Every structure is written in C-alpha cells, then in structure tokens.
C-alpha cells in the first residue's frame, strides 16, 4: 500500500521523512479518522446488544500474526523488568496484561484498566486461578486513579481513537509513569 512501511513491528526504517512531509501526511489522514462514537463500536461495548461479540472480535484480532508481532515489539520497547509496576491502559480481555505479569514476576505488579465492564469482567475471568501479579479495574483513560510517577512503564494499544480527548489520556500516561519510565502507545 502506498505510504505504508512493510515492517509491522516498527523496527528502524530505512525511509526517512522530513518533518514537513510527516505533518502533511498527518493533515491528509485526519479527515479519515473515526471519532469516538464512530467506526468499530468499541467505544460502546457495554451498550451493545451482544457485548460478547466484541470479546470474540478482540480475540480474533489479537490472534493474527501481525498483531502478535506488534505486541512483541511493544513489550520490547517497554523494557519490562522483574519487579516492575506496569499499567496496561485499555486492557480489553487482559491477555497482554497476563503476559506482562509473567515478565514482572511475583515481585512486580500489572494493572489493566478499561472503561468497559464487559472487557474487565472477561479479563478477570481469564486471570482467575493463574496466580499472577495482575489486577483489572474499570477506569477512565482521561482521568486515571493512580498517584503521580507510580508505574515503571505504561502501554496503550488501539485505544486513543476511541476517546473524546486522546491528548488527555496521553498526558495521564505521562503523569503516572516515573521520570525514567517508558510509555508505549500503539
């Protein structure tokens, strides 16, 4: 596809664009971006006739080799260490938070947050009996209920397009991560 780099995991690209070219590309893309209540329907999962169809859809998307590669790359960029505290914003069904919990080990903690009761309930169901250091909470991405500089790293995947104020959500991620921590947004 025109303008797309063939590497889905964001490895260093041989293609370098000047800042003016990037801003032109961004301006062109803006009219095609769906608003918070348009497009996929993930903004209103809990109000759907069958909210479990979204759970199945997330599983189908996450099961593709494309998204598996992106998730691996995001974990690499997050540089998860044993004992770390990690936030997974928009955790959905919680599978990535479980993977992160395996990486932080018993000395660490992973918190997955989502604004959908359906997704949080599914994430809790999947984590039950696994004895991993993970918890799931209902939360608003634009007003996180955590102290400043609490997490060693934060991740956010396929969430910002569903929010009324994505800049505020990014500001919240920056607020809750410690100064030398990492924020990875996909």
Please give a handful of descriptors for the protein shown:
37% helix; Rossmann fold; alpha/beta
Fold blueprint:
Blueprint lengths: L18 H11 L22 H11 L2 H14 L6 E5 L5 H10 L4 E6 L2 H11 L6 E5 L12 E6 L9 H11 E9 L1
Parallel strand pairs: 1-2, 1-4, 2-3, 4-5
Walk me through what this model shows:
The chain is of the alpha/beta class. The chain has one domain: Rossmann fold (3-Layer(aba) Sandwich), CATH 3.40.50. The protein is 37% helix and 17% strand. The protein is built from six helices and five strands, in the order H-H-H-E-H-E-H-E-E-H-E. It is globular, with a radius of gyration of 17 Å.
Compact summary:
The chain has 186 residues and is an alpha/beta fold. It is built from six helices and five strands, in the order αααβαβαββαβ.
- Global geometry: globular
Strand content: 15-25%
- List the domain count as a whole number: 1
Mean pLDDT: 78
Under CATH, the homologous superfamily reads Vaccinia Virus protein VP39
Assembly of the depicted chains: single chain
Query: Percent of residues in helical segments?
Result: 25-40%
């Amino acid at each position: 596809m025109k303008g797309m780099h063939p590497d889905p995991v964001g490895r260093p690209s041989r293609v370098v664009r000047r800042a003016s070219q990037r801003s032109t590309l961004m301006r062109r893309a803006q009219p095609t971006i769906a608003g918070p209540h348009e497009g996929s329907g993930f903004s209103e999962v809990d109000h759907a006739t069958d909210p479990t169809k979204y759970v199945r859809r997330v599983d189908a998307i996450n099961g593709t080799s494309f998204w598996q590669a992106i998730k691996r790359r995001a974990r690499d960029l997050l540089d998860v260490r044993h004992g770390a505290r990690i936030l997974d914003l928009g955790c959905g069904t919680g599978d990535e938070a479980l993977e992160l919990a395996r990486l932080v080990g018993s000395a660490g903690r992973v918190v997955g947050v989502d604004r959908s009761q359906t997704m949080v309930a599914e994430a809790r169901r999947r984590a039950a009996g696994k004895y991993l250091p993970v918890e799931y909470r209902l939360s608003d991405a634009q007003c996180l209920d955590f102290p400043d500089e609490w997490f060693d790293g934060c991740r956010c995947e396929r969430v910002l397009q569903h929010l009324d104020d994505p800049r505020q959500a990014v500001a919240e991620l920056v607020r809750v991560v410690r100064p030398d921590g990492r924020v990875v947004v996909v």
